[in-house]
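Tutorial, part two.
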Amino acid sequence: PRDSVKCMETRLTELVPQTYQPASMDHASFHSLCCRLKDATFSDDKLAVLNSSHGYFSGDQLHQVLHQFAHDSDKLKAVQALQGRLCSMTCAEAARVLDASSFFNSKLEI
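Running the prediction step on this input gives:
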């Protein structure tokens, strides 16, 4: 009986596609990125730092990154720059990301 259960589990695993979930950036790398963002004076410089970064971002990390930008238009650019490198988020994480923007219309764009 155990062999038949194991065989069934193997078949189910073969039928259900496994999606790859990348891990978010490790703490040390993210801290280094945040320091470089803080050192960058202008929004364009901050965006250049983001564009040159490597790795994936959790919802919490994205929230922290967005707080490095003063204007909603720049926050939107940051989200667009990182959209292909975002990990899956919970509803709570997504809500925190949206709260980083102060205007309703900007929240709709994010």
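Residues 47 and 78 are 6 Å apart (CA to CA). In part three we will examine how such features are distributed along the chain.
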